[in-house]
Amino acid sequence: MSKKEPTIYDLAEHLNVSGSTISRALSNHHSISKKTRKKVVELAKEMGYRKNSFASQLRNKKTYNIGVIIHELNSDFITSVLNGIGKVATEARYNIIIGHSSESSTKEIAIADNLLYQRVDGLITSLAYDTVNLSHYDPFIERGVPIVFIDRVPVDALGVKVVIDNKAAGYNATKHLIEQGCERIMHITADLSKNVYSDRFEGFKKALMGHNMVFEPEQLLITNLSEKAGVKIAQQILNMERKPDGLFITNDLCASVCMYHLKKNGIKVPEDIAIVGFNNDIISRIVDPKLTTVNYEGEEIGKVAATNLINQLSDNPSNSSYTIVLDSDLLIRESSQIKQHDILNDTINKS
Question: pTM for the complete prediction?
Answer without folding.
Answer: 0.78
